[in-house]
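ok so heres the complex, two chains, lmk if somethin looks off
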Amino acid sequence: MEEHVPAVINLTYLWKKEREELGEKVIETIKGFGAEGIEYCMQCGACSSICPLATTGFEWYNRRLIKAIDFGIRDELFDDVTPWACVACNRCVEVCPRNVNPFEVMFAMRRLMIEELAVPMTAVQALKSLYDHGHAVYTTGREARKKVGLPEKPPTTDSDEKALEELRVLLRNTKLPELGLFPMS
Amino acid sequence: MKVGVFICHCGLNIAGKINVKELVEYAGKFADYAEDVDYACSEAGQEEIARAIAEEKLDSIVVAACSPKLHEATFRRVAAKAGINPYMVTIANIREQCTWVHSGIEAQLKAMDTIRMAIARAKQSKPLERKRARIRRAVAVVGGGIAGIEASLTMAKAGIKVYLIEKRPSIGGHMALLNEVFPTNDCSICILAPKMNEVWENENIEVITNAEVEKISGRVGNFRLKVLKHPRYVNENCKGCIDDCSSVCPVEVYDVGIRKAIYMPFPQATPLYAAIDWENCIRCELCVKACKPDAVDFSQKPEEIEINVGAIIFATGFKPFDARRKPEYGYGKLENVITSLELERLLSASGPTMGEPIRRDGKKPEKVAFIQCVGSRDVNTNPYCSRVCCMASLKNALILKERFGIDVTIFYIDMRAAGRGYEEYYRMTMEKGVRFVRGIVGNLYEKDGRIVVRYEDTLLSRVFDEEFDMVVLAIGMEGNSLLPKSEDGFAEVAHPKLRPVETSTKGMFVAGTASGPKDIQESVASAGLAASKAMQLICSGEEELEPFNAYVIPDKCVGCGLCVKVCRFNSITMDGKAAIDAKACAMCGACVAACPADAIDMGFFSDEQIMAEIDALTEEKNTDPLILAFACWYCGYSALDLAGTLKLSYPPNIRVIRVPCSGRVDAEWIVRALERGVDGVAVIGCRPSECHFGVNSIAMKRVEGLNEALELYGEGGRVKGIWCSAGEARKLVNSLSEFVEELRKR
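and the predicted structre for the whole thing:
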């Protein structure tokens, strides 16, 4: 099931890699990307019990991602889509007894992946769609909307050129253009 | 004033590192007499010092040797024997704080400075007399749970008068309401009730129920407690039959089972009088008519009584965590989500359901879940572990499984079964088929009369939904103390390891869970210790106090009242001018340093003595940069000594003046030292919230304020506060080294 991460993890190799290749611990990198509470995690599982990713079969949901990072696993997770599937429902933040803020870990992982230009296809599509339409998941169901008497496009960036342009300016000012998904500012 | 100096070789500990003969010659320039001794603490050494005091007619002596922590008391005895006041002895610490951490010329120079400072101090020493205070032969015990009961019985049996003050209608506390107790599974009330009865029957114990302590004044040996006795509305005529009154009472109250507004808290209640639940009573007075012995009396009024005692033991126990503060568990909304203490009542043979674990709808549960750490190990509620919940849940799980054939699952983060026989008990519950899931429930909801629990088994990394008939929340303990609290909400004790039942106020002790989560055996042990500490005080009959107390010089006092504000011990009163109760003074010196008119001074750490040390230090400058450190006797001074014991060498730029507390450090001293050429001043005090007198926060503000003021003259950063414990020698040494570097860069 865990296709990207080998069945037996060589911790000595990871430890050496952190020291010699990366120059810092993976957990420090992730903290630098905003997940400052990660080291307080005691793996109690309260976050995963209510995480939509954990219940829909994603491999590296909050608690397991935290553990993997703690072990120094990093590159092996770059092909995994889990962080990009996080819906930011914030429930993990609310139930965490240690203020770890697992949601921030998910997002820190996204930031690391962007930094390393290691973005899975699913995420690339989502980001492109975000730039083109203002929606990471492009809305469908236009026929259904028409049928119940609603405008074909919802009153979002999808139907508001000005709002969409504002969003694009924001996106162009992030690190995302470096991925070549959309033009630089 | 004739001052003599004795420099100890301490074998090679001192003499192997520095030139003692040269030091004797040097000391002779400042003192009237100087000599060296091989081992000052040996019998021969002591005799030599005594001889010199007598023959040379010395008034004050300096012993340059090891830390005063070791032999100050020894040399005070020698002085007293030789006919001078014991407080005319000054120790120059040239071993722990010199030869054990420095070497060569630098050690020699530091020893010279240290001895010169000590001689200057010795010239300002004054004879001091120890004070004695009579101790009342009575103790108040606040709280009648198992800890209060144990402490009361221990003291009463030794012939000491005890006032046991209990808030509720019956003594017995939480333990009286428990079912069986681990790890032996005895019935809780069966082992407690005989003790409760013994308390009631003992003629040395006066049990005061329905009562609360309103105010405490006075000091060790003579505390005055104002106690408010709430009306019980039931008098001593009550025979404890309860049927006549409660059968006519029209009010039904749910209290884990139905009871009336007039009720017996539990069958073994002591005293065995009916109690009236005042919140729910409608005052129909049907019970008044029904009671044949005329025991119900609504004309009773609240009463205020005063108690005089020599010591107080606080056994105020804990507050159960309010499970509604974890809304994801639905407590208070879902009736089949109950707390561990409610389950104890259900399982208690004399409880509301006669020991049957039934739901409120009358059904017997087939599957029960325990959720551990509710309100514990949670930074949003209580960050600490409540210690007893793991074992309590194991015990209740075993009873549900074995006695009632109920399937039990325990959801845990870590199972903690540290204690004699506890791990064995844990294993036994596993053998009996209790299921353990490592994972904390994040959410639950009701579905068709059952509770659906959502959890991740973190060992399998899989999320599950599972239905249970009943969910038990293992709620933790919260502090419930009248005493000053620690960060965790429990009573602060004088030392967490070595003085676990003493508080920072002499004569006030703490027993049981008031000072942190404990199980029954730990509560009993701490109660026994608290009783013996109180008895030690009471039996001494008199309390001997060090003569370091602060006193007011009335002519100088301007009546500003600043001293009253900084005193944490209510020892200062203000009636135009300040007055200090010498016997209530804790001798920290915070008021002395705070007084803007120099109208307060104290024994042994007088302004004159310390100023003399500062001035003597700055007569010569033997190191650069020169740092003067004011070290608190409790932490900083000990940590410096520990650095010596560990032979942790550090820059030889530091000279030390001992103070009773960082709160004693007067801003004037620091300014004087800097003016006279000291490059930096370090104030070494206890860690925040660990000050023995609770005044180091004042010292911190003074250091900050001084630095801000110095900043205006471009001299900021010359004063450094270092806050460490007695054990943090390494941290202290590092901070001092950093300070030296900072000053070097200037």
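quick notes: Chain A has two domains: 11-115, 121-179. thats all i got rn
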